[in-house]
Amino acid sequence: MVEISIAIHGGPESRKTARALAEWLSSIADGDTGALAVPQRIGAPALVAVPAPAAASRPAAELVLCPDRRTASVDGVAMTLTRREYDLLLFLAENPRQVFSRAQLLDLVWQHEATCGERTVDVHVLRLRRKLHGRGPLITTVRGLGYRLDGADRLSIDAG
């Protein structure tokens, strides 16, 4: 058995809503109605916007890079990165808040491998963003210019 308490504030209409809701919950417990029946029983719109309570903000994640071991972790959880993803992330981490064009990144990180085009940088940035899950420092697009790493306060490069 599960006990649920619901507080509904207001006048006579609220009492009607509370009774209808209680009947609906009871019928769900008996298994004779579905969840979609509640708006019709209460006489309420199917969707009601309710502001979410303010969530406790989590502290920003920390990205830790260890160049000697070629490891990366966010909040202590190891990241699985390809060689180039790691190279790109480390390069941006060593040069935070500095904007680099795609051509510069190709030259400095990829060293102009014959098979690489400028979209290669975009793909690697996209993959890094996904792997960071929006945590840790952010790789920011500077429209018309290139990319930079923001949030250097959430980054540390470990010597060993």
UniProtKB/TrEMBL annotation:
Q: OmpR/PhoB-type domain spans which residues? A: 55-151
Q: Name one GO cellular component term.
A: cytosol
Q: Which GO terms describe its molecular function?
A: phosphorelay response regulator activity; transcription cis-regulatory region binding
Alphabetized PROSITE patterns for the sequence: OMPR_PHOB
DNA-binding positions are 55-151
Gene Ontology terms: biological process:
regulation of DNA-templated transcription
Report which superkingdom the organism of origin falls in: Bacteria
Show the InterPro entries listed in the entry: OmpR/PhoB-type_DNA-bd, Sig_transdc_resp-reg_C-effctor, WalR-like, WH-like_DNA-bd_sf
- Keywords per UniProt: DNA-binding, Phosphoprotein, Transcription, Transcription regulation, Two-component regulatory system
Q: What is this protein called?
A: OmpR/PhoB-type domain-containing protein
Organism name: Rugosimonospora africana
